[in-house]
Amino acid sequence: MIRTKKLIYILTAGLFLMGTGCKKYLDVNKNLNDPTAVPVSTLLTEAEVQIGNAMAMSSGLSGGLSVYMHQACTRGNADGYGIKGDNFTVENAWALFYGAITDLDVIISQGTAEGRFKYVGMAKILKAYAFSIMVDTWGDIPFSEFNKFQTGVKQPKFDDDAAIYPQLLAMLDAGKDDINNTAVNPTVPAGDDLVYGGNTARWIKAANTIKLKMYTQIRKVQNVTPQVTALLAAPASLI
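^ thats the sequence. predicted structure below, dont judge the formating
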């Protein structure tokens, strides 16, 4: 009788452990390749790659606005190379830009919470640059309501392109302020920054140069002589 009870206990315990193990093993609803938190260093690299691909020459399934922008700037015929607004490369660039901006938004929020202000500053500069290219290419685009799905915005509105540019210029200045923040950062960008290798001085120059380029874009509809003059007065601050 005693042996029988021991055998029952052993079998019961074994079945319990097997059930627990199977449940853990068969928990297919947890995607191990979709983490809920990603280091800002990883996100910065990914965002830079996506922006680079969005601007690259089209090749296979990648890119790119290079041909589209080239014809838009140098060809009288808007369809000179057979590229239209609904072309795959143009549509793919749209998705790549917004994918990068999504990552940059995470860097901005997560980096601010973690005190990694160098990352935050670079992310703001990249975000402003990406949006400026999108405005130059498509005009009105989702901006103020983009990436607001968690707050209930499922179909973001298209903002007026003229209203977006001033916000991007302010974003560039905010990015420079974050880079110049004297707070001690737990970590700072280095090899994970594919653009300048963590060189903050070059990022400041990049922000100033992007501002100069944006002022050039709007010079025919707005008097930006004071702003351009101020930037050109300090050529060492430009790339």
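The radius of gyration is 25 Å.
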